[in-house]
Amino acid sequence: MTIWTPELPEDGPRYRRIADAMAEAITRGELAPGERLPPQRRLADKLGVTIGTITRAYAEAQRQGWVESRVGSGTYVRHREAESTATFRAGQPVENGVVDMSMSLPPPHPLRPQGLRDTLLALADDPACLQRAVDYQPEYGLESHRRQLAEWLGHLGMSAEPESLVITQGGQHGLTLALQALTRPGELVAADALTYPGFIGAARQAHLKLLGVPLDEHGMDIEALSRLCARQPPRLVYTTPEQNNPTGACLTEARRERLVALAREHDFWLIEDNVQYLPEADRGTPLIELARSEPCAFSVPPRCWPAVCESAPWSFPKRCWGESAVPCAPRPGWCRR
Fold first, then answer.
1. Alpha helix ranges (H) inside the chain
2. Where along the sequence do coiled-coil regions lie (predicted)?
3. CATH T-level assignment (fold) for domain 143-336
């Protein structure tokens, strides 16, 4: 019987290359859910490696959530159909009489659809603008758009250089890009026990292990996060310091400082989601500002239409259009939305 035999790249530890090949084969459908993987000794002989290398590779693939071992039976590709990778309920109907409180949303206001309508009509009457819209654009977005966004953010009291901004397809896209850039499947990420459903969906889609950190009226319990770090530091922590979604809790200044200190101590990333805009007098110090001396955070700013992500020396904010900041320096870093 022909057994699955991966083609391995040249670089990296052999066990990790085998685990990565396994993940790719599962993603492509070459290894089907429920399919039994080759016995470790047979695969070791086929690849010319030790059985210990195969054991480590299978363990790594299981850690990442691709396979599962069954005592006395072998190792099998996990069934993933039952796992919800899209728990983001935005725009989905709810039963009559049910109030969906899984997300904090602004109250309806006629100025919002009217503003969008007026903008689209203005674009329709501008042939040059329409032509730019159908042309291929730079992967970072048009320079004029990034300059205007940087200027707009400056009016809100949030400094950003056009060179640090990248146009995305919305805040959800920015979060997904941040997770793809900063994590590997199977790694641990942490967030408030009650948090934005879109982040939960993005984390599951990236095959990450998501852990909820307790929170109270003052936001995330940083001491609980510290105890978690003592056992197993996460790769990344996601938080909404201003008006947690959905509870509305605001992270205190002391907890912000402690969170940034923890990120530096345990070498994990921060994604700071600032989707809810607050006037400068009513908001705390952004994590991206606290971490500027030694970046460890990504930031996603307040939303207006789609959403934004900006980057200082490593930041990913989410703001108003669908914009994302790309880090300009190596680790550590922070992420704000």
1. 14-28, 40-47, 51-63, 111-124, 127-134, 143-155, 171-182, 197-205, 222-231, 253-266, 287-290
2. none
3. Aspartate Aminotransferase; domain 2 (3.40.640)
Q: Are strands 67-70 and 209-213 parallel, antiparallel or unpaired?
A: unpaired
Question: How far, CA to CA in Å, does 187 sit from each of 125, 194, 291?
Answer: 49, 20, 23
Who contacts 240 (Cβ-Cβ below 8 Å, separation ≥6)? 192, 195, 196, 272, 273, 274, 275, 276, 337
CA distance 20 to 143: 37
Q: What residues have CB less than 8 Å from 275, skipping those under 6 apart?
A: 171, 196, 240, 245, 300, 301, 302, 303, 307, 318, 337
Give the separation between CA 70 and CA 74, rounded to whole angstroms. 5
CA distances from 316 to 46, 173, 288, 336 (A): 44, 11, 9, 5
Per-domain boundaries in the chain: 14-77, 143-336
Which residue carries 């086929």 as its tokens?
A: 46
**CATH code for the domain defined by 14-77:** 1.10.10.10
Structure tokens at 242: 């201003």
DSSP class of 106 = P
Query: In this structure, are strands 67-70 and 74-77 parallel, antiparallel, or unpaired?
Result: antiparallel
| Per-residue model confidence as pLDDT tens digits over 241-289 | 998 988 989 999 999 999 999 999 999 999 988 877 778 788 898 888 8
What does the alpha-carbon distance between residue 74 and residue 71 come to, in Å, rounded to a whole number?
7
